[in-house]
């Protein structure tokens, strides 16, 4: 045995810490070349190229426009009370374009007619300056050097150089297109300070909001994003099964919430994507019930609307199940009616239809199902049936899903679905406890069934197919408790 090895400790090369996980420091999360698990530097560059191409195309007819400058602030750290921050979540547009996870940063993208088409822009990232004292308390920062190495932008600088950079740009250029989200500015101080000044100087030709462009890009997922969407939905699906098995008469809604949070995190998710709805019995009829502070009585259904966030990508599922493991006859009738509608809606998620098309079909089908149960009068006129269906399901059939739960809200729901889009399909029926127009056995029952669907050229792919939704599958899982 070589005793000298025991005496002289093995010196490993110094590890450089960044302000976020990196392949060097978190090999269990990232491969070399990835900025975000599964998303490479090259993909981020491709996204910026596509954005710039779309921006330039919109003003192709304006010959005097030589330059475009696109400015994307990151999210800020927000405090709930002195020194106590809320959990930080990065701004989705900023994250989509560079993958940088630190607060109080700004991405500036410059494009000039003279740049080549293969590298049509220069991306500069302005980030918090290295500060040993602050890092002692808050953890490592990447600094300009680290940000450059980590993200692969063209240059990185300290945040305090941003103002000078932008005023220099304005001196050197005029009649440029200024792209910036002035409707929902992510950083108040930057908006009222540097940006207001830049807009006020009027060196630009026009100020355009970035939102529509960004949502247009983000609504269609790349193969790497499809993989992350598949994973985030799979994690939530598995977690739902565990929550079902954990539920029993007398369980607290808050315990089901905690169980969901736990089962998502142990599968790799960072956190739940939104405050979940965990509603026992008639509380399901409050669509955004998030108090989750009641006890679920024997014989009640549980409606849980929950999803998680995995490396910036969200899932959004809803299941409704009997807390004691067996649907009552009335619950079963209403559940089967909702499920029949939901299945047809899922099958309609093709490039032939828009979300609004699916919604109209949902109302018609729900009307028919509820007429069969006598919940809507059988002699009601066609327009009365639709009106009543809209009362019993006051929300849309679904929305786009991605980095944000209600993703790409600037993309209309009346455009045809396209391959690479991910949407939710979530019909529901909510019979209020005091609705005396409906047979007593149905009153107080609220049901929603929500899947996450990937649109393809052919048939839709149900990303949440492993989350049980038939009466038989749910009752079988509940019997395995
Ligand atoms: Mn939803």
Share in β-strands: 15-25%
Alpha-carbon Rg, integer: 26 Å
Terminal residue distance: 55 Å
In the CATH hierarchy, the third-tier topology of the largest domain is known as Creatine Amidinohydrolase
CATH class of the largest domain: Alpha Beta
> Helix tally?
14
Number of spatially distinct domains: 2
Domain Ig-like: 282-354
Protein name: Ig-like domain-containing protein
Keywords: Hydrolase, Manganese, Metal-binding
Organism: Littorina saxatilis
Please characterize this protein's 3D structure.
The longest helix has 24 residues, at 223-246. The mean pLDDT is 95. Helix 9 crosses helix 10, helix 11 runs antiparallel to helix 12 (355-372) and helix 12 (355-372) crosses helix 13 (382-392). The chain has 14 helices and 21 strands. The protein folds into 2 domains: 34-217, Creatinase/prolidase N-terminal domain (Creatine Amidinohydrolase, Chain A, domain 1, 3-Layer(aba) Sandwich), CATH 3.40.350; 219-479, Creatinase/methionine aminopeptidase superfamily (Creatine Amidinohydrolase), CATH 3.90.230.10. The chain has helices at 4-7, 41-58, 92-98, 132-138, 143-151, 162-172, 188-201, 211-218, 223-246, 253-265, 329-347, 355-372, 382-392, 471-479, and strands at 34-36, 39-40, 67-73, 79-81, 84-85, 106-112, 122-127, 155-158, 177-180, 206-208, 271-272, 277-280, 301-306, 308-310, 313-314, 317-322, 422-425, 428-430, 446-448, 451-454, 461-462. It has 481 residues and is an alpha+beta fold. It is globular. Strands 8-7-6-3-9-10 form a 6-stranded mixed sheet. A 3-stranded antiparallel sheet has the order 11-14-15. 44% of the residues are buried. Bound molecules: manganese (II) ion (MN). Residues 316, 399, 424, 426, 450 line the site of manganese (II) ion.
């Amino acid at each position: 045995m070589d005793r000298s090895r025991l005496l002289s400790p093995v010196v490993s090369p110094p590890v450089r810490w960044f302000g976020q996980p990196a392949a060097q420091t978190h090999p269990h999360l990232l491969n070399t070349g990835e900025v975000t698990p599964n998303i490479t530097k090259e993909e981020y560059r491709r996204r910026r190229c596509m954005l710039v191409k779309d921006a330039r195309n919109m003003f192709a007819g304006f010959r005097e426009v030589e330059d475009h400058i696109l400015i994307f602030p990151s999210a800020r750290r927000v405090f709930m009370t002195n020194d106590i921050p809320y959990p930080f979540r990065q701004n989705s547009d900023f994250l989509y374009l560079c993958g940088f996870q630190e607060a109080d940063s700004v991405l500036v993208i410059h494009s000039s007619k003279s740049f080549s088409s293969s590298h049509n822009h220069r991306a500069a990232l302005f980030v918090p300056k290295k500060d040993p004292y602050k890092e002692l308390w808050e953890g490592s920062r990447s600094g300009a050097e680290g940000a450059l190495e980590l993200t692969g932008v063209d240059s990185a600088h300290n945040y305090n150089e941003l103002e000078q950079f932008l005023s220099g740009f304005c001196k050197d250029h005029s009649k440029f297109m200024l792209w910036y989200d002035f409707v929902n500015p992510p950083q108040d101080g930057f908006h009222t300070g540097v940006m207001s000044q830049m807009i006020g100087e009027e060196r630009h030709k026009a100020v355009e909001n970035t939102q529509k462009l960004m949502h247009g890009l983000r609504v269609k997922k790349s193969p790497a994003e499809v993989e992350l969407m598949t994973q985030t939905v799979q994690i939530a699906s598995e977690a739902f099964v565990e929550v079902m098995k954990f539920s029993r008469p007398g369980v607290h809604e808050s315990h089901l919430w905690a169980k969901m949070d736990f089962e998502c995190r142990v599968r790799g998710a960072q956190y739940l994507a939104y405050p979940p709805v965990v509603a026992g019995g008639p509380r399901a009829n409050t669509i955004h019930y998030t108090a989750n502070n009641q006890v679920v009585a024997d014989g009640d259904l549980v409606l849980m609307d929950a999803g998680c966030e995995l490396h910036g990508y969200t899932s959004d599922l809803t299941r409704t199940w009997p807390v004691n493991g067996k649907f009552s006859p009335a619950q079963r009738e209403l559940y089967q009616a909702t499920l029949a509608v939901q299945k047809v809606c899922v099958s309609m998620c093709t490039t032939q239809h828009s979300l609004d098309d699916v919604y109209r079909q949902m109302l018609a089908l729900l009307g028919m199902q509820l007429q069969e149960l006598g919940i809507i009068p059988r002699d009601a006129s066609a327009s009365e049936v639709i009106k009543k269906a809209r009362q019993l399901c006051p929300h849309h059939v679904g929305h786009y899903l991605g980095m944000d739960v209600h993703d790409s809200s600037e993309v209309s729901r009346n455009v045809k679905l396209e391959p690479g889009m991910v949407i939710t399909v979530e019909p529901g029926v909510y019979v209020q406890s005091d609705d005396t127009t409906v047979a007593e056995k149905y009153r107080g029952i609220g049901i929603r069934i929500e899947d996450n669907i990937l649109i393809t050229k052919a048939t839709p792919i149900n990303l949440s197919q492993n989350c049980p939704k038939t009466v038989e599958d749910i009752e079988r899982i509940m019997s395995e408790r």
